Amino acid sequence: VKRFRFISKQSKNKILRKMSTTFALRRLGTMTSSAVRRSANHSPTAYKSCTGIYSGALIGSLDTSHQHQIRFKSTAPADEAEEEVTSHTDAEPRIDNNTPEEVNDYTSDKDKAGTPSPWAVFDAWGAGDRITECLSDGEEAKLSVESVKIPTSPGETTVFNETDILQAYDKLLKRKSSVHFGYPYNLMYNHEELYEFMKYSINNLGDPFIPSNYGVHSRQFECSVIDFFADLWKIDEGDYWGYVTTCGTEGNLHGMLLARECHPDGILYTSKETHYSIFKAARYYRMDAKAIPTLPQGEIDYDILASEIEKNRDRPVIINVNIGTTVKGAVDNLDRILRILKMLNIPRERFHIHCDGALFAMMMPFVEYAPEISFRKPIDSIAVSGHKMLGCPMPCGITLARKEHVKNVEQRIDYLNSVDTTIMGSRNGQAALYLWYSLRKKGLDGITRDVTHCMETAQYLRQKISEAGLTCRLNDLSCTVVLERPMDDRLVKRWQLACEEDIAHVVVMPNVTIQKIDKFVEELVECKNDFGRIKPKRNDSPLNMLGCSSWGGNVVAPVGNFTSE
Question: Is the whole-model pTM more than 0.90?
Answer without folding.
Answer: no
